[in-house]
């Protein structure tokens, strides 16, 4: 049987890009279904009735939602290049950092841009980012995953790429080389990974989108 | 080599109980280190420098933190009774619901009790709980895990047990039989599982704790 694999997504979504990166790392072919976020398809609503959001990966009719859950599924089903470490302890460490990024880091960073760089929001985001900076320093590797990207790098795609566009639109500087040299270098390496570079949405589109989002049109 | 396994916890914590349930399901012996939450040990701070919270499971010197991450680790390392489904799709569904409970349901429920049953908070919690009620209805099984508890039931321990104590302290009724008959029946079944019953902290202690927490002393 040939697998039927469809990804319901939106090119500018950092969550959708996470899934695309994992699929491409493994060389998995899939049908990309681009959603109109302002007019979601009946299929999307059927497949993700709880959150009504992209990404949704539909594998032989079975819908999987939530980007990190989808990536774990991809890694469970398809062998080849691993996205999570194979060792159970290293795997738990990767899950910990991916969760940290989603639960602590990303919300703090978003607050900075929504508040237009309010001091308290900046201080909180700096604190969370410093934890990631320290982790890269302690590891001393090119990526959170070591020599190659893994779940943690993918989970941090927002910091590597989307934040730059937000900084440009809002003129608030957050991840700067003097404060976070390791994160800046990591972001550059991540963005330039072949598999990542081919997936990231054009920067101009993000700029336009964030201008609307932050009311800076 | 004999495994050295220590759990840094706090008996009243719903997160710590999750981990204890998973360990007991597999019949794993461990040393329980009870933390004083108002005066955390140097070991706890060393093992969980990011969140400084229980539970932390330390396996042969390696610390694992975050209750759901710890449970995945336990299931990865020790065979025997599975805590997550073995099938990759069913596994992804379980991860989805555990995440839903932590990200959507629990925060909405906590808001109800912190606001002392404010109408908007109640409406939001009802909406999230209805999603779980519907899931139990569709499944038609005793537990989210089917005939036996799995990751999802364990993740929902807060709803099954802690919420009852909060309802008693605040006199706000949230999970009632007329509104959520399936959830009420599920909670009763869950609490009466042998492995769960032996772990849940005494209700009187929770009542006392929540009286302080809600300022109802």
- What strand line-up does the widest sheet of chain A have? 2-1-3-4
Number of domains of chain A: 2
User: What radius of gyration of chain A results from the CA coordinates?
Assistant: 17 Å
The stretches of 5 or more residues of chain A where confidence is low (pLDDT under 50) are none
Which overall shape of chain A is indicated by the principal axes computed on the Cα atoms? globular
Instruction: Give the CATH topology of the largest domain in chain A.
Output: Glutathione S-transferase Yfyf (Class Pi), Chain A, domain 2
Structural class of chain A: alpha+beta
Helicity range of the residues of chain A? 55-70%
Number of strands of chain A: 4
SS strand fraction of chain A: 5-15%
Order of helices and strands of chain A: EHEHEEHHHHHHHH
CATH class of the largest domain in chain A: Mainly Alpha
What is the CA–CA distance across the termini of chain A?
50 Å
* Total helical segments of chain A: 10
Kindly state the mean pLDDT of chain A as a whole number? 96
Q: In terms of quaternary structure, what is this?
A: homodimer
Largest β sheet strand count, sense and barrel closure of chain A: 4 strands, mixed
Question: Could you list some keywords that capture this structure?
Answer:
EC 2.5.1.18 (chains A, B), 4 strands, Glutaredoxin, homodimer, Glutathione S-transferase Yfyf (Class Pi), Chain A, domain 2, 217 residues, 4-stranded mixed β-sheet, alpha+beta
Structure in words:
- Chains A, B: This is Probable glutathione S-transferase.
- Chains A, B: It catalyses: RX + glutathione = an S-substituted glutathione + a halide anion + H(+).
- Chains A, B: Keywords: Coiled coil, Transferase.
- Chains A, B: GO terms for molecular function: glutathione transferase activity.
- Two copies of one chain form a homodimer.
- Chain A has ten helices and four strands; from the N terminus they run βαβαββαααααααα.
- In chain A, strand 1, helix 1 and strand 2 form a beta-alpha-beta unit.
- The first copy, chain A, has a four-stranded mixed beta sheet with strand order 2-1-3-4, covered by helices on one side.
- The first copy, chain A, has two domains: 73 residues, Glutaredoxin (3-Layer(aba) Sandwich); 126 residues, Glutathione S-transferase Yfyf (Class Pi), Chain A, domain 2 (Up-down Bundle).
- With 217 residues, chain A is of the alpha+beta class.
- Chains A and B meet through strand 4, helix 3 and helix 4 of A and strand 4, helix 3 and helix 4 of B.
């Amino acid at each position: 049987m040939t697998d039927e694999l469809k990804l319901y997504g939106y090119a500018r979504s950092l969550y959708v890009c996470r899934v695309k990166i994992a699929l491409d790392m493994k060389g998995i072919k899939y049908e990309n279904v681009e959603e109109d976020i302002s007019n979601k398809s009946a299929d999307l609503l059927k497949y993700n009735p709880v959150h009504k959001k992209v990404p949704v990966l539909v594998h032989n009719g079975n819908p999987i939602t939530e980007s990190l859950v989808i990536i774990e599924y991809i890694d469970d089903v398809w062998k080849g290049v691993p996205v999570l470490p194979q060792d159970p302890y290293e795997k738990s460490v990767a899950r910990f950092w991916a969760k940290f990024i989603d639960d602590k880091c990303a919300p703090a960073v978003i607050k900075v841009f929504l508040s237009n760089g309010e001091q308290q929001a900046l201080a909180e985001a700096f604190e969370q980012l410093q934890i990631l900076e320290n982790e890269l320093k302690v590891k001393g590797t090119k990526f959170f995953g070591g020599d190659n990207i893994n779940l943690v790098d993918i989970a941090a795609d927002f910091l590597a790429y989307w934040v730059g566009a937000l900084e440009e639109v809002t003129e608030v500087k957050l991840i700067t080389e003097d404060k976070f040299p390791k994160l800046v270098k990591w972001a550059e390496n991540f963005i330039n990974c072949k598999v990542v570079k081919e997936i990231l949405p054009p920067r101009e589109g993000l700029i336009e989108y964030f201008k609307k989002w932050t009311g800076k049109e």
